[in-house]
Amino acid sequence: MFRFVKLFFIGLVLNPFLEAADLEKPADGLSITRPASSSGPLDNPLKGYCLYTTAGKIHRPYSMVFQYVSWKELEPVEGRYAFEDWEKRKWSHPRASGKHVVLRVYVDYPSKSSGLPDWLRAKGVTEKDYRAHGGGKSPDYNHPQMVLALERLIAAMGKRYNTHPRVAFIQLGLLGFWGEWHTYPRGELFASEATQHRIIRAYLKAFPNKQLMARYADGVLSKYHAIGFHDDMFPEDTDNGKDWSFLARMRRGGHIDSWKHNVVGGEMVPNAAGKWMGNQWAYTQEMVKRSHFSWVGPYGPALDAKVSVDLVANSDELVRKMGYQFRLTEIRHQKSVFAGGECSVVLQGVNEGVAPFYYPWPLKLVWLDAKGDILSTVKIRDDIRKWLPGKFEIKTTFTAPTTSGIYHLGFGIEDPWKKNPAIRLANRLPLMGGWTVLGLVQVKSKLK
Q: What's the distance, CA 362 to chain centroid?
């Protein structure tokens, strides 16, 4: 009698989450659930909005912050890197709290003071004045001491950030105006191809585990196929029919399908969110599909209060479509198993976004008791990076608890930084401690 009442009570608790789900009558002791869909989360990690922390109030949910830093700030004295001091100052900003970080180091930021360390000037690295974009000083990127110092900086950054779980993506930066790998319209100020190759190779050596991003996909970058890209004039220049547009360069450089393995993102045309989320919304949607964008920033619609109020539906749809959005379409597991036995689990789902997830974050199943406490955990042998837009499937078995009872079967995708399940599904399924509850399983005592 007690067991019946307990099952009935748990069913009542779960019922509000499953009322819209399509439930099949279990066959041969198998529970088959087709859970109802829901609007996807707006702050799932490593997608959506990636914003400045210093540009005022952020009006919509977001998962990442974008932070520039000058070389001079990171290495004020030759060979002495101030990463920790910089992180304490910038990563602790209230708008950065709990957020992953996208990082770009610059040497020359037009209209700002030079980011070149003073000790490099003392080694003979010269700078040339320019007036474009507010003016500034462009360093001699090809000076031997400059190139060697850049390579050492990149190596030091790799030691610090290659496996740092809070760092989402690293943009190459360093060369050109804003670290965008150009000095337009002063092309003669830019680095030689030989220098560009050395910098790219230094990054690839220093960051074997981190997704890198470059501004342009043609030219020197056409030779490197392990790097992602950022379009900093999205969506206006994404695919506008000109041979210099972002996707034209991607096609010319042989990178048009690189989104399947390497992240694509970038900045919306500054201060133009009202246009691109308003009367040009259809164009923006099309550019998201073509480019396979995962995130927008550091400027984006969430920094515009009027857009966030008047065009909130478009803003939220943009976030849900960018990058990944995982929804389960069917859950299969055994209704009951013997204590210590194997429970088979099959999950079918669909990635409703335009891109995959780009890191091998652990997929896990857990047994949860009625209080939500974890009894045991197993890592699923599957690679989330392979879940391209479209269908995916997980098949695995999970050893049941050794004590009889009724248990929740939980699922989660764990953030290595926070050590908790972080990627939420676009389903109406209950959560317990961040774990998505797939169903209930009765664990029976073994027959003697």
A: 15
pLDDT digits (tens, 9 = 90+) for 52-78: 999 999 999 999 999 999 999 999 999
CA distance 318 to 313: 9
Report helix, strand and coil shares of the chain as percent, to nearest 5: 30, 30, 45
**Contact, 301 vs 318, CB < 8 A?**
yes
Residue in 311, 300, 278, 314 with CA at minimum distance from that of residue 55: 300
How crowded is residue 330: how many other Cβ atoms within 10 Å of its Cβ? 15
DSSP secondary structure code for residue 285 in this structure: H
For residue 327, CA distances in Å to 36, 39, 245 come to 9, 10, 33
pTM above 0.90, yes or no: yes
Lowest mean pLDDT among 30-34, 276-280, 392-396, 443-447: 443-447
CB 429 within 8 A of CB 365: no
Q: What is the pLDDT of residues 254-309, one digit of tens each?
A: 999 999 999 999 999 999 999 999 999 999 999 999 999 999 999 999 999 999 99
393's CB contacts (< 8 A; 6+ apart) are: 346, 347, 348, 349
